[in-house]
Amino acid sequence: MGEIAIKPRTIGALEKLEAYESNVRSYSRSFPALFSRARGSFMLSNDGRKFIDFLSGAGALNYGHNNHGIKAAIDGYLASDAVVHGLDMATPAKLQFMETFSSVILRERNLQYRFQFTGPTGASAVEAALKLSRKVTGRQNVISFTRGFHGMSLGALSASGNRFYRAASNASLPGVTFMPYDGYFGPSVDTASFLRSLLLDESSGIDSPAAILVETVQGEGGLNAASKEWLQSIQGIARDVGALFIVDDIQMGCGRTGEFFSFEFADLSPDIVVLSKSLSGYGLPLSMLLIKEGFDVWRPGEHTGTFRGNNLALVSATAAIDIYWRTTTFSDGVQRMGKLMRRRLEAIASRHGNSFAVLGRGMALGLDCPTPQIAATTARKAFEKGLIVERCGPDDQVVKFLPALTIDLETLHEGLQIFEESLAEALKLEKSH
Predict the structure, then answer these.
(1) Cα(357)–Cα(282) distance, rounded to whole angstroms?
(2) Contact at 8 Å (CB) between 313 and 282?
(3) 176: which strand partners?
């Protein structure tokens, strides 16, 4: 009898990617599909499946995928053979961005800052902010907060609380003292007063800080939202102890909480603001610091990098401001949509007793689940049904909602309906086990 010919099995695209790419890959594991196209709040896979995107590039796509208004500005710039990469050289694109940002965003909010374009990532900007604070004050210590997240490079990681990420560095991460965030010990404990007492006590054992670094809403830490009063207290403490007050607005800035800056509701005036993610408006890498002039003590070339001020991203960032931020219409719409989302999520939570809680602010919301397994099963079921939604929190027990700020009402409701059905299925499975 002759040998039976066995045809080689066709290797799928995801398997090929798995063979090529490092084990460190993350989102391709959570969302196993080959995504080929995207527009607005939708992503399409190569096999024809359609997904509603409630992840938005981890907050880098506040204006949706392939926003055509912003895309037109990019296309026009590329067609003109204008400078795309120019280190930190002067270009019309850079000047126009700074003038537009100053007049439309800063001046309307009675804020005045100088711009520092850092490396392309949010972590690059955090590194620059910490380095500058230490240079300004001559101090080393930085106050950060429990469950905060500021990036994966060593300096930014030293100010991030998650043990999983910290342990991966296998390095000493010095120079940061962690303090309890607002509500960490429950609503009855004033953690700002606790911090003040420690920093004003000469025998507390805590070195005077160069900076206090804070997120107004902790995106990766579980959508913990600080109150206006707490944030104002933290800013006051920074002033009283001679530390720079830094707001990390990487994920929560650019409209995510309703206003352009997430700290506007608290009437804050940070010494340094860190921006990235949706700053470019199109998912292009762009990060920067806003620095109060008195603290801009850099000497020329003292903090540098090859990819500072990506001109293509500056063009798209300018377009985003022109399209969405010259009036309050867009901001008002985001706040209305955020309230609608919260009401819908609170209704879903209430149907399951007191075991769930809605967290966050604006259009950065989360559902805190009783167990990480419920959150994981819900997210998996949601993906199977056509919804991309992430998890966050210390144990990944919070289902996180970051839809595009430009999402239409019908699509938002459709996504939330998928989520509700997925949660019900996850709870049913939990009970059966």
Answers:
(1) 32
(2) yes
(3) 142
Residue 409 in tokens: 């009402």
Residue with tokens 């695209």: 13
Each residue of 52-81: pLDDT tens digit?
A: 999 999 999 999 999 999 999 999 999 999
> Class assignment of domain 13-67+328-432?
alpha beta
Phi, psi of 52 (to 5 degrees): -80, 130
Any idea which fold 70-324 has?
Aspartate Aminotransferase; domain 2 (3.40.640)
pLDDT (0 to 100) of residue 170: 86
Share of residues in the chain with pLDDT > 90 (%): 88
Contact (Cβ atoms closer than 8 angstroms) between residue 364 and residue 219? yes
- pLDDT over threshold 60, residue 7: no
| Residue-level length of the chain | 433
Token pair of 431 as six digits: 């009970």
Q: How far apart are CA 206 and CA 59, in angstroms?
A: 34
Query: In the chain, where are the structural domains located?
Result: 13-67+328-432, 70-324
> Using the 8-state DSSP alphabet, how is residue 109 labeled?
G
Name residue 163's amino acid: R
Strand partners, 75: none
Taking the CA atoms of residue 159, residue 182, residue 264 and residue 313 in that order, the dihedral angle to the nearest 10 degrees is 30
What DSSP letter does each residue of 213-234 carry, written as one string? EE-SEETTTT-EE--HHHHHHH
User: What backbone phi and psi angles, to 5 degrees, belong to 265?
Assistant: -60, -25
- Tokens linked to 19: 């063979």
- Same fold? 13-67+328-432, 70-324: no
Tell me, what's the pLDDT at 353? Answer: 81
Given the structure tokens 């706040």, which residue do they identify?
335
Q: Is 297 helix (H, G, I), strand (E, B) or coil?
A: coil
Question: What would you measure as the largest C-alpha separation in the chain, in angstroms?
Answer: 91
Torsion angle of C-alpha atoms 67, 71, 72, 74, degrees rounded to 10:
160
Nearest Cα residue to 143 out of 206, 55, 66:
206
- pLDDT for position 17: 86
Q: What is the pLDDT of residues 73-131, one digit of tens each?
A: 999 999 999 999 999 999 999 999 999 999 999 999 999 999 999 999 999 999 999 99
Q: Contact, 176 vs 158, CB < 8 A?
A: yes
